[in-house]
Each structure stands twice: as structure tokens, then as C-alpha cells.
Amino acid sequence: MLRLQSIKLAKAKHLTVPSPSSLRLVKKRMIAMDLMHHSSCFLLPTIPLQRRPSLTYALLVLNQNLPRFTPLLWNHAQLHLCADGGANRLYDEMPLFFPQEGASDVRRRYKPDVIKGDMDSIRREVLEFYASLGTEIVDKSHDQDTTDLHKCVTYIRDSASGLDKSNLCILVVGALGGRFDHEMGNLNVICRFSYMRIVLLSNDSLIHLLPRTYCHEIHIQTSVEGPHCGLIPIGTPSKSSTTTGLQWDLNNTAMEFGGLVSTSNIVKEEKVTVQSDCDLLWTISIKKL
Amino acid sequence: MPLFFPQEGASDVRRRYKPDVIKGDMDSIRREVLEFYASLGTEIVDKSHDQDTTDLHKCVTYIRDSASGLDKSNLCILVVGALGGRFDHEMGNLNVICRFSYMRIVLLSNDSLIHLLPRTYCHEIHIQTSVEGPHCGLIPIGTPSKSSTTTGLQWDLNNTAMEFGGLVSTSNIVKEEKVTVQSDCDLLWTISIKKL
């Protein structure tokens, strides 16, 4: 089971004993919980060196049009998987990002390590092409109870050898848009695997879970993301959420569908903090460059 | 709209498909578009001062409160363009149909149709098999459901609990022409739209 790393260094800075009145202040409340840091470094051309342990990325391609930054994500990832029809997308659309090169050359360069899933969408010639190049084909057509994303996340968690999983982040393209029940099923997967870092990406937005068991620091990469953002209590009403760094910060604010949901918010500072009594989806817009 | 009628002149199509009302922030509409429709008599309702609600929210409120000459006793609001694009917009639009749970509001895209099934009713969904299905789902958006029951689906629910992080009924299949749903919480019903 993957475990999220607690930030001992940051905790050491907050070793003051809180007085009763100061307990109302947001910063002092963060003593009680581990910090989880988030940063969309994977959207930058080069991932900068950081004090914190760096993340290992896996890229998962599902069956929707590839976002324009897919080659960039591919370059950062150590493991590349396609879920079933995602292999068709890779085969058809990766060459479109490199119009000056031959399609075959592009396809060979962007060859997935694994293709996994039901195998009811992948075209025969695509399957044969990648199989002939050495891609591992993992056929789970007998398992109808879980979505392709679920199968692939389980595979990465349990099987993928040679991958440093101690600080893993799974980047997923193609999980949004298309059939709405698929999109909701994919959101449910990131809720079920709340202990793993899984980021859903489209041309317009980035989404990941903020588990309630952590205080969150989100370091905004202003060159590639923002300013539009939101916090979504997707499955459970939140009695109390608190933020800093947003235009409309929450301050022990209740949120729920049917009532207040933080959407069309604006990132105001380079660091956003979030603390909540329930799992929230964080979403931020991706800049069209 | 002219793209759907390539044999006709664009101006003719635009005149035929003239909106009665344009409403909202007015921060996206192009000047020439606004002037074109205004000159044809479209009512322009500028709510640029109200930043607390989404465009969908403003329009649903307008339809509920203002739209005269409309029989509102059995109204159903069909919405296109609420899905896709920015995810926070999509969630904001889903929240609007949750907030106006007493109104019939249907969100439509090329792939899917979504509407709310309020918990205060038993629901009968009559499937139009020529245009929709078979893929469907029931989504406990915002609140866990302790008990939901259905008939007519491949994987029916039977006093089944659903919640994000656990079971959510997606990639289900419509098996009969009538689907029934009963739940202790508001559910989103979604069904695929056939590509014909």
C-alpha cells in the first residue's frame, strides 16, 4: 500500500504550543495534521529540483482526444500505460503533434510499456503494432466490475515492476469529457484510491483529490495553470473547509451540492492552502499557451 | 447554427434561430453578435454586476421568475453547453440542477443527457430506445445514499448503498423500456445519447 510522505521538516517549524485564542488561527491549526504538498511541475518543460523528495510519474492514456501537452507529460513519466482504446488515441493522434516527422517514427518513440483493460475498443492493427514493438498486453476482459482506469491504477499499484512507487504520481489523460457516466466513474476511482496521487488532465483543467486527513499546500505554477479554480465536495457535504490564497477564501465554511460549491474561484497567491473535514476535489484551469 | 444548414445562407439561418433573450455577465459575447441579435429584437438582460452566481443559475432564475408568456406549470429547461470545457464550470452547472431540484432541468451534450431525480419522488424513466441508451448511470452527487432501488437495469440496485469512494452506478445498461428509481437522496440520472 502506498503511503504519502509526511513533511517532518515543515512540522518542525511549527513547534510552538498554541494558546487557546491562537487556536482559531489557520496556520497554528496545521500543527495537528501532516502536510501534503502539491505542485503541477509535470506541466513544466523541465521539472525543477526541489527540497522535497521528487515524484515518480506514470502516464495513463484513456480513450479521449489527447490533450495538447501529452508529449510533455510522456517525457516526464517513467511508465506509460494505455487503457484499451487509449492505445488507438496514442496511435492516431501522437503523430499529429509532430507533423514534420513520419507517423511510424513518432509511434515507435511514443510506445506504451503496457496496454491494459477490456480490449473491446482497441483496434486490431493498433494492438498488433504495439505488441510487435514489445508493449506488454494485459488482457482483463473477464473483469467487468471495474472501469479501465480502476484496472490500470490497480496494475500500477500492485504489479508494475522497476518503478519507484514510494513517491508515485499517476497522470491520467482522457478521463474527462465523453460519456458523463464514464467521467463520474473516473472521479470515483480517484476517490476510492484516495491514498494515491492521481491527477486527471484535460486541455482545460487539472483535477486531483485533497484527502481530508492532510492539510494541503498547493504551489501554483502560474506560467501553466490558473487563475480559475474550484473546490468540490464531490461525495459528502463538508461541514467545515478553510483556505488561504484564493479570491474567495473559505473560513470554516460549509459546502455541499445543492448549496455552496466553490467554483469559478480565482487563485490570488502562489501558495494555496486547504484544510477540510472531507475529501475535496481540487481543480484548476490550464493555460492555453 | 449555420453549420447545420450548409445549403442555406448564414444570415437566413441566424434570423430563423433568433434567441428571445440573451442574459448573463456579457463578458464573452462578441460585440457584433450582441448588436446583430439586438437589432432583431432579442431582449438583452445584462447582469454583469452579479458575480456570485453562474450564467446557468442566472438564466434558470430568469426563466423561473420573469419569462412572461411561458406556461411554467409544466416546464422543462433543456440546456446545451453545460458540460465539457472547464471542470469547475461543469461542477458549478451540476450544482445548479441540485439547487433547483424542484425544477426539471436537463443537461445535454453530444454523448450524454443528465437530470436530477429528487429523493422526494419515485421515478419512472421511459427510455426512448431510438435515441438514447443503453449506457446509463446513477450518481449520488454530493451526499451518500444509504438505500437506492431500481428496476429495468442490467445491474439493478436493491436497497443498495452508494457513495463516492465506494459504489457509484456507472457503465450500467438499460434493459427494459421503463426504468424505475427510488432513493433516499437526490441522484443524477445519466444516459448515453445515440450517434445516429
TrEMBL record, chain A:
Subcellular location: Cytoplasm, Cytosol
InterPro entries the UniProt entry points to: Thi_PPkinase, Thiamin_pyrophosphokinase_euk, Thiamin_PyroPKinase_B1-bd, TPK_B1-bd_sf, TPK_catalytic, TPK_catalytic_sf
GO molecular function list: ATP binding; kinase activity; thiamine binding; thiamine diphosphokinase activity
CDD domains, alphabetized: TPK
EC number: 2.7.6.2
BP GO annotations: thiamine diphosphate biosynthetic process; thiamine metabolic process
Superkingdom: Eukaryota
GO CC terms: cytosol
Domain Thiamin pyrophosphokinase thiamin-binding: 216-280
Catalysed reactions, as listed in the record: thiamine + ATP = thiamine diphosphate + AMP + H(+)
Keyword Disulfide bond listed: no
This protein's pathway: Cofactor biosynthesis; thiamine diphosphate biosynthesis; thiamine diphosphate from thiamine: step 1/1
Keywords: ATP-binding, Cytoplasm, Kinase, Nucleotide-binding, Transferase
Main subcellular location: cytoplasm
Root EC class: transferase
Function: Catalyzes the phosphorylation of thiamine to thiamine pyrophosphate (TPP). TPP is an active cofactor for enzymes involved in glycolysis and energy production. Plant leaves require high levels of TPP for photosynthesis and carbohydrate metabolism.
Family: Belongs to the thiamine pyrophosphokinase family.
Protein name: Thiamine pyrophosphokinase
Organism: Gossypium raimondii
UniProtKB/TrEMBL annotation, chain B:
GO biological process terms held by the UniProt record: thiamine diphosphate biosynthetic process; thiamine metabolic process
Compartments, record wording: Cytoplasm, Cytosol
GO MF annotation, one: kinase activity
Principal EC category: transferase
Superkingdom of the source species: Eukaryota
E.C. number: 2.7.6.2
Record-annotated Thiamin pyrophosphokinase thiamin-binding domain positions: 123-187
Gene Ontology CC entries for this record: cytosol
Keywords noted in UniProt: ATP-binding, Kinase, Nucleotide-binding, Transferase
Functional note: Catalyzes the phosphorylation of thiamine to thiamine pyrophosphate (TPP). TPP is an active cofactor for enzymes involved in glycolysis and energy production. Plant leaves require high levels of TPP for photosynthesis and carbohydrate metabolism.
Protein's recorded name: thiamine diphosphokinase
